[in-house]
Write a structure and sequence with these properties.
By secondary structure, the protein is an all-alpha fold. The protein has helices spanning about 5-10, 15-30, 40-45, 50-70, 75-105, 115-125, 135, 145-160, 165-190, 200-210, 210-230, 235-250, 255-260, 265-275, 280-285, 290-295, 300-315, 325-365. It has one domain. The protein starts with a helix and ends in a 7-residue tail after the last helix. Its EC number is 2.3.1.-. This is O-acetyltransferase OatA.
Length: about 375
């Protein structure tokens, strides 16, 4: 059995557990820190680096799951794309509909954005991140902007898998140079200029724009090629990767926004991700435990519900629990419990039903072809 065959059979459950850690970082960004010190607030405000982890993970996992079948011709683009839609759409629609209702009914105490057909259509068709207007790319359930990016990655992936490792590295480095030059030009000539919405143009271009954020997805694909060849880091690198990550989060406020939103975190989060691919290391075993794997499986639901959940708890629960040191774990536990419930009762059954339908249609068209 060659290295590729061996790699395809490996279960990387620690990456599932790590998904919850990444979602927890994003949770910290949207938590309203009232009574904590500057250090905690500074670190927490940089938690959006968790999205970079998700994008790298996406490139790695899709390569692991689909590359062999796509290159062998046993999976068409139609089947592949429908399976990816089945992964995102049930939760995306479910978490977006309440915001649609609140905007139509003008329930400003919960959701202040006015109803717009254009914004709704763009959001529900995963196109909102292409529009450099914050009220559009943060429309309905704001965290869903990243799903627009992911959908773009999915489309590109079907062609990217055919690239040789050398060409894939070249494309990744080339895009990195484009992002660097763009960040330099924006910093020098535009700075914090706001063209539309509430945020500077640099916020959209380097944090939201799918054409630049695919860089992290490409890094995930390259890392899979390195991992497939058997390259591993020493276990001691794992704790070091945490120190470097939190040090970067502490220093990040002094970094100009175009670079902080794009390239600043990329080396650190890449090292952090790859360090956890080392089999047998202590933290690898921790994140592969059943409780963390469950939380990791529910992390997509957690990611999509955490911001509205925090908003509601700030309205109804926060007045009676003012201290951050108490309210943070309480709100985290409530959100996590609801996410697990949503994952088991709705997300998993809906995704399975949609994927079974896709596979059933495929089997009907190609009865002699095995699918998985």
């Amino acid at each position: 059995m060659n290295v590729t065959d061996s790699a395809a059979k490996v279960r990387l459950e620690q990456l599932t557990g790590l998904r919850f850690f990444a979602a927890l970082l994003v949770f910290g960004v949207h938590f309203r820190w009232d009574t904590s010190g500057d250090f905690v607030k500074t670190i927490a405000e940089q938690g959006y680096v968790g999205v970079s982890f998700f994008f790298i993970l996406s490139g790695f996992v899709l390569t692991q799951s689909y590359k062999t079948r796509i290159l062998a011709g046993t999976m068409s683009f139609r089947d592949y794309f429908l399976l990816r839609i089945a992964r995102l759409t049930p939760l995306h629609f479910l978490t977006g509909l309440p915001f649609l209702y609140f905007s139509i009914m003008q329930v400003e105490a919960i959701y202040s954005e006015e109803f717009s057909v254009i914004k709704t259509v763009l959001n529900l068709t995963y196109l909102q991140s292409w529009i450099p207007v914050s009220s559009i790319y943060f429309s309905l359930n704001a965290p869903s902007w990243s799903l627009s990016d992911e959908m773009f990655f999915y489309v590109c992936f079907f062609g990217l898998v055919a690239f040789s490792p050398r060409k894939l590295v070249a494309v990744t480095l080339g895009l990195g140079v484009v992002v660097f030059v763009s960040a330099l030009l924006v910093q020098v000539f535009l700075g914090d200029v706001i063209f539309f919405g509430k945020y500077p143009f640099s916020h959209w271009l380097f944090y939201v724009f799918p054409g630049f954020r695919i860089l992290e997805f490409l890094v995930g694909m390259v890392l899979h090629e390195v991992w497939r060849r058997g390259v591993r880091l020493p276990g001691a690198v794992q704790p070091l990767s945490y120190l470097l990550l939190f040090l970067a989060m502490w220093l990040a406020p002094d970094v100009p926004d175009p670079f902080r939103y794009s390239l600043f975190y990329l080396p650190v989060i890449t090292l952090f991700f790859y360090a956890h691919l080392t089999e047998g290391a202590a933290l690898t075993r921790v994140f592969a435990t059943r409780p963390l794997v469950l939380l990791g499986n529910a992390s997509f639901a957690f990611y999509l519900v955490h911001q509205p959940s925090l908003h509601l708890m700030n309205i109804f629960l926060r007045p009676s629990i003012p201290a951050d040191i108490v309210f943070f774990p309480v709100s985290l536990c409530i959100t996590a419990a609801f996410s697990i419930f949503l994952y088991r009762i709705y997300e998993m059954p809906a995704e399975r039903a949609l994927k079974s339908w896709v596979k059933g249609k495929r089997s009907a068209q190609t009865p002699n072809e095995a699918t998985s």
